[in-house]
Structure formats: C-alpha cells, structure tokens
Specification:
This protein is mainly alpha-helical. It folds into 2 domains: about 80 residues, DNA polymerase, domain 1 (Orthogonal Bundle), CATH 1.10.150; about 180 residues, hpI Integrase, Chain A (Orthogonal Bundle), CATH 1.10.443.10. The protein contains 13 helices and 3 strands, in the order αααααααβββαααααα. The chain has a 3-stranded antiparallel beta sheet with strand order 1-2-3, with no helix packed on it. A hairpin with a 2-residue loop joins strand 2 and strand 3. Helix 2 crosses helix 4 and helix 6 crosses helix 10. The N and C termini lie far apart (about 60 Å).
C-alpha cells in the first residue's frame, strides 16, 4: 500500500496540482484508514463494499462528524478510483456508498458596525500594531482564506495599482484592494515589515515578531485578541471575516459572479449561500426593478 500511496500522492501533487492543504487532508484521511486496516489485519486491495461500510460505522462510533466522514469517503474513493484507472485493482469498494448528509451551516457574519469596531482595535503605534492593523484590514478587504493570506509573498501585492494576486494550487485570482486596506498595507510594508524581518531574502508578506512567516495559529490568536479588546460576543475567526466580506459586498449591490471570482469559488452555488443575508432595501429594489418580481 505504501508504494501505491506514494504514486497516488505524487499524482495529486504533480498532475492534479492539488494545493498543499488538500494534499495534507488526503494524507490524514488515508493514513487513518491505513491504520484501521492494520488493526483489522486487512489488505487495502481486498476490501469489499461491506467492509468499507463497516469502516464508516467505525468512524461514526468514534464520534466523527458527518462532514468529516464525507471527506474521509471522498479521499479514500479518490485513491481507489486511481487504483482502478491504473488497473491495479478491478473494482472500487467505495462505489455506490452514500456519504452521510451534511447539514449546511449558516455562515456566521459580523455587522458593518462590528467589523468597524474590530478593525479600530489595533493601534499603529508600534511594529506589531502596524502589522495587525494591516492584516485585519487586508483580510476584510479581500475575503481571502487564512491559508491564502499567510502564503502571500511581498511580490504578490501591487501597492501602486492596488491589487493582490492570490495563488491557490494551480489557480490564481486578482482581488482589488480598497483605499483603507491599501494605506494600512503600505505603512506596514514600508515602516514595519522591513524591521521585523531578520533576513533580506524573506519573501513572506506577513511575518511574526521573529521575522518568520506568520502561521495559521498566529493569525487566529491575533483575531481572538482584538475580538476580546472590542468586547464582541460573537465568535470571530478569519473565515468569519471572509463571510462578512462577501455578505457586505452583496448587500451593497455587488453581483454574485464578481463575488464568486473574488472568493475563488469554483461553483457559484457556494456563493449563493450569502443571498440569505441580503437586507430588505436590496430586496425592495429587486421587487421594484425586476419585470417578473
């Protein structure tokens, strides 16, 4: 199995151009499956559909959420489909297996006032404050995922033209930057980042106090700190800022296709979830303007 897994992961990385996050997710899911097979003393290429269903029941018994189980099935299915396609196996034991129904959660969002309150918290009086101000303004201005933000390099941002190029695997998109975010980012790059970094060859846009690329955990801690400073009771994560970005754009008249492009959604159905947050004034405009409303 080890040899086949290596070939499969190489295929995902080099041919499918899967992002590092996706790749790590596949590896975690399949490693868990591999450990289960070892405990049961079973070979992966002899597993039946019945035994695959037993594995799914095992995941339920150990308390895995439906969304986690669905992702596990998808990862394992991709591996078996690769094996069948390359004639290593005749049949895919996951064929016909239904993923558990995952209840779609309503995205948590902040009001415009809550966003303003949060973004007012960092005081640009020291290096950390300047960085935090730029980072929070940037997150809300672009709606980028936390992994995308911490993966940015300095050259990915055009401070003259006011946009950022976001790269995710083999895909990339260009997102405009608003004046407030651009101003905060310029101040950070020109007067804080160059002092925080320890090596001139450092490429990372956002760095920690040691001059290294900021981590996901570091980003989360910073947001949590300012949420508490702002006395906002809602749970605020980088993804909540992403949801708020999309919702506020929609409420202020942006079209779904543009929001889809900025968020990097491959399917517009993912973007349509924000339609439920449209305010009443926008609905009134629609009812008055649309000939079949």
């Amino acid at each position: 199995m080890e040899k086949q897994l290596k070939l499969f992961f190489d295929f995902l990385e080099n041919e499918k151009k899967a992002s590092n996050n996706t790749l790590q997710s596949y590896k975690r899911d399949i490693k868990q499956y591999e450990n289960y097979l070892e405990q049961k003393q079973k070979k992966y290429n002899e597993i039946t559909t019945k035994e695959m269903k037993e594995y799914i029941e095992h995941l339920k018994e150990i308390g895995k959420k439906p969304s986690t189980i669905s992702r596990n099935i998808a990862s394992i299915r991709s591996f078996y489909q690769y094996e069948v396609k390359n004639k290593i196996m005749r049949e895919d034991p996951t064929e016909g297996i239904q993923s558990p129904k995952v209840e779609k959660r309503v995205p948590s969002i902040l009001t415009s006032n809550e966003v303003s309150l949060l973004l007012e918290q960092p005081q640009a009086t020291d290096l950390k404050g300047i960085r935090d101000k730029a980072m929070l303004e940037f997150a809300y201005a672009t709606g980028m995922r936390v992994t995308e933000i911490i993966s940015l390099n300095v050259e990915d941002v055009n401070l003259e033209e006011g946009y950022v190029v976001c790269k995710n695997g083999n895909k990339q998109r260009t997102i405009p930057l608003g004046n407030i975010a651009l101003k905060a980012l310029r101040e950070y790059v020109t007067s804080a980042r160059n002092i925080l970094i320890k090596k001139d060859e450092t490429k990372a846009l956002f760095v920690n106090i040691n001059g290294n690329r900021l981590t996901r955990q570091g980003f989360w801690k910073i947001i949590k700190y300012y949420k508490e400073q702002a006395h906002i009771s809602k749970d605020i994560t980088p993804h909540v800022l992403r949801h708020s970005f999309a919702t506020h754009l929609l409420q202020n008249g942006a079209d779904l296709k543009s929001i889809q492009a900025m968020l990097g959604h491959s399917d517009i159905l993912s973007t349509q979830v924000y339609m439920q947050f449209q305010d009443d004034s926008l609905k009134d405009i629609y009812r008055k303007a649309h000939p079949r409303a």
